[in-house]
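Example record

Each entry pairs one chain with its bound ligand, zinc ion.
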Amino acid sequence: MKFFCRHCDKIVAGKPYRVISEEDGVILLDMTVCRSCDKQARELGLYSEAISLEPKRGSHRRRWAFAPTAGG
Ligand SMILES: [Zn+2]
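Structure tokens for the complex follow.
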């Protein structure tokens, strides 16, 4: 798939990764990057994870919140 790498600042093909930097519960960095940037981030000691593109199980369209008036 294609996605926008926030570090390369361009559209790249492949698997997206997410690089997160957190300190004392504060998110300092949270960006979607390509594989090579992910590698760089890991070398710098940042936390990264592969982004799962699989659709969530059991997800279904939520009904519009109509409130039918029964009995009237
Ligand atoms: Zn990149």
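The pocket of zinc ion is lined by residues 5, 7-8, 12, 33-34, 36-37 (CB under 6 Å).
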